[in-house]
Specification:
The complex is a heterodimer of chains A (497) and B (170). By secondary structure, chain A is an all-alpha fold. Chain A contains 22 helices and two strands. In chain A, a hairpin with a 6-residue loop joins strand 1 and strand 2. By secondary structure, chain B is mainly alpha-helical. Chain B has two domains: 78 residues; 83 residues, no CATH class. Helix content of chain B is 71%, strand content 6%. Chains A and B meet through helix 8, helix 9, helix 18, helix 19 and helix 20 of A and helix 2, strand 2, strand 3, helix 3 and helix 5 of B.
Chain lengths: 497, 170
């Protein structure tokens, strides 16, 4: 395929391994996650050709997706919200001295989930992009609307908190010069605010500094299980894994389905775990260290994390904070994300898709061979790691646009991130709204201009009406599902999360 | 109130929820008000600059009020839960205050020197490491950053008003 020829140069392959390696480190370190790591390393890629840069950055993403499992299993610390379900059975397995098996099972399942999602992207993304070429402003706004509504409907937090977080993101996006009228908005006379808020600063502050403050508050020590993966354990585990093909397939479908709708990776991992628990023969033993309980969430969250790139490539709408950062990268490299990307930059898109295949294989090899090394990173005392991460975040924040004021904003975002995390305000909607705010606003304004302020334009034909309807359905899903559950079985409550 | 309150003292979740809800409410009101001033209605050539943010601000206000009511109505059992214990809060400030000083240091003596002192000081005071270890790690990390950014990737980082690195040509 054409894409592979873009990727298969020694230089790109080297960067691929570097990216995966950095990604795993970023995934393992507390305070640095996928979104953050990509945000901090983004400025380093400005000088590279876009196709090479995206390969490296997406490999950081793969590394971080896999790396999150290491901390979940060995230290019972989920690196990302979607690895929470992995700790349920992964950590008990590590406590029983079966860490090697748990890690092998998790990496292999991650690989399987990601691979299936990439295959899906390969075949579906061009069709979606083609279809989206006929979209006008109302259609685009309805897709944005769907994105944000599914966050509210699918989120595990209280809807009002999700709305507050999301709307703050929109408000921050509005800061600066209004592109349509040229007026200054929400700058309050500060020249630092003229440029507006860059979402990379928000990502670095909210996720990086916020996480450091949280870990500091919880005390500095974490005790982990040691892990050695020998070839024998890997082969032994691989021999046993095919038994869980049913669970893996179900989790894969759940992951791919929920991944395309934004914010889906976390619900996907929980749902896959729940479904596996209900359908498995050993369902009642879940939580005590069942390998199946590691397979299910890992397949689902990697399938979801990877499918989150589908709307980003095909529509220019990211499905997760990390995808949002990658999208920001596209814009900085001078590429206009959206359906036209397939037509105008085929090298880039197919290079990216090819790098997903190769990147996943590279990650699998690297994690299986280097686990002891990555686990050792986690044993570096927190009082050394914490200041180093703060320094790295500060450097990352500064290099985004060479502004020292951004470092202050980063600290403020850090405090906000700490407060929000402690009070269960989700951070992902804020970041996505900040990224998509300008685009959503201009789509909304153009639609309003077309319709002279008539909101009925969002139901004017079957396509836009269908998407808007779907969005409203997603928005009110908690109410609908609650109602359905009450109608069906008054006893079986709590099954619809 | 009896056995828990004596052993675990701190800010209650309820108080923190209410405080944050008030903050977001204030932010929402601010956004709504300034958007209204900018022109939140239909101007001569279409929607004004404040048209979209006006609704955003209003939604923040509405959702904040919902949060406020939910937090206030949470009542006693939830009200007793601790948001952060005082000594844990102290640890949080032990990270935050040096980090702020580090940022001030970036303005004055540049990011490299400031980072060196910050890492060293953090390790010595909070990690209780001997001073030579702190300085060694601080120097190592800063030197690696320096090589990576200034030398390899040619990304220039701030040197501060009183550049200390002038003597080596940077």
């Amino acid at each position: 395929m054409h894409g592979f020829s873009v990727v298969l140069s020694p230089y790109t392959l080297m960067l691929m391994f570097v990216g995966v390696f950095l990604g795993i480190i970023v995934g393992v370190l507390p305070g640095l996650g996928g979104a953050n790591g990509v945000a901090i390393l983004l400025p380093l890629t400005f000088a590279m050709p876009p196709a090479t840069a995206i390969v490296m950055l997406s490999c950081i993403y793969w590394g971080a997706l896999f790396g999150g499992a290491i901390t979940s299993i060995l230290f019972n610390i989920p690196g990302e919200p979607w690895s929470v379900a992995t700790t349920f059975d992964g950590y008990p397995m590590a406590q029983q001295g079966r860490a090697g098996e748990a890690l092998t099972a998790s990496f292999t399942s991650s690989f399987f989930g990601a691979l299936c999602a990439v295959i899906m992207i390969t075949f579906i993304a061009p069709a979606v992009a083609n279809f989206a070429l006929s979209f006008g402003p109302p259609e685009f706004f309805s897709v944005y609307f769907l994105t944000f509504c599914s966050f509210i409907g699918m989120g595990r937090e209280k809807p009002a908190k999700i709305i507050v977080s999301m709307m703050i993101g929109f408000a921050l996006a509005a800061v600066g010069i209004d592109i349509v009228t040229g007026q200054l908005r929400l700058t309050f006379g500060f020249t630092e605010l003229l440029r507006g808020f860059n979402f990379l600063i928000a990502v670095i502050g909210l996720f990086g500094i916020g996480e450091i403050l949280l870990s500091m508050e919880e005390g500095l020590s974490f005790t982990g299980k040691s892990a050695k993966i020998s070839l024998r354990v890997v082969l032994e585990t691989w021999r046993r894994l095919p038994r869980f093909w049913g669970t893996a397939l179900r989790s894969m479908v759940i992951g791919c389905w929920l991944g395309v709708t934004p914010g889906g990776a976390t619900p996907a991992s929980f749902m896959a775990y729940g479904v596996a628990k209900r359908t498995s023969r050993d369902g009642d033993k879940f939580g005590t260290g069942q390998m199946e309980g590691v397979v299910a969430p890992e397949v689902a969250n990697n399938a979801a994390g990877t499918s989150a790139l589908l709307p980003m490539i095909a529509l220019g709408i990211p499905g997760s904070p990390t995808a949002a950062v990658l999208l920001g990268g596209l814009m900085i490299w001078g590429l206009q994300p959206g359906p036209l990307l397939f037509k105008e930059q085929p090298d880039f898109v197919w290079g990216l898709i090819a790098s997903m295949y190769l990147g996943n294989i590279a990650t699998l090899i690297l994690v299986l061979t280097c686990v002891p090394f990555f686990a050792a990173i986690l044993r570096i005392p927190f009082s050394i790691i914490a200041p180093v991460i703060v320094v790295i975040c500060a450097v990352g924040a500064y290099t985004v646009s060479n502004a020292q004021s951004d470092i202050w904003f980063m600290l403020v975002f850090g405090v906000v991130g700490y407060l929000f995390k402690k009070l269960d305000y989700p951070l992902a909607p804020l970041v996505l709204a900040l990224v998509l705010g300008d685009m959503a606003e201009s789509a909304f304004r153009q639609s309003m201009l077309m319709a002279q302020g008539d909101l009925r334009i969002f139901f004017s034909n079957w396509l836009v009406g269908g998407i808007t309807g779907l969005a409203l359905f997603a928005l009110f899903w908690p109410l609908i599902s609650g109602l359905l559950a009450r109608l069906r079985a008054p006893k079986a409550r709590g099954a619809t999360t | 109130m009896a056995e828990h309150a004596s052993s675990r003292k701190g800010l209650s979740i309820r108080a923190a929820e209410i405080a944050v809800a008030f903050l977001t409410l204030a932010l929402g009101a601010l956004v709504t008000y300034t958007s209204y001033q900018l022109g939140s209605t239909w101007g001569p050539d279409g929607p004004g600059a404040g048209y979209f943010p006006f609704y955003i601000g209003s939604l923040i206000c509405i959702a904040s009020i919902v949060n406020l009511i939910q937090a206030a109505a949470a009542g006693h059992p939830a009200g007793k839960r601790i948001f952060v214990e005082w000594d844990a809060l102290g640890r949080v400030f032990a990270v935050l205050v040096p980090a702020a000083l580090f940022v001030v240091g970036i303005y004055l003596i540049g990011i490299y020197v400031s980072a060196l002192f910050y890492i060293a000081a953090f390790m010595i005071w909070i990690g209780k490491y001997p001073w030579y270890k702190g300085l060694a790690v601080g120097f190592g990390v800063t030197f690696a950053l320096f090589l990576m950014f200034e030398v390899w990737f040619l990304v220039l980082l701030p040197k501060g008003i009183y550049s200390v690195l002038g003597f080596i040509g940077y």
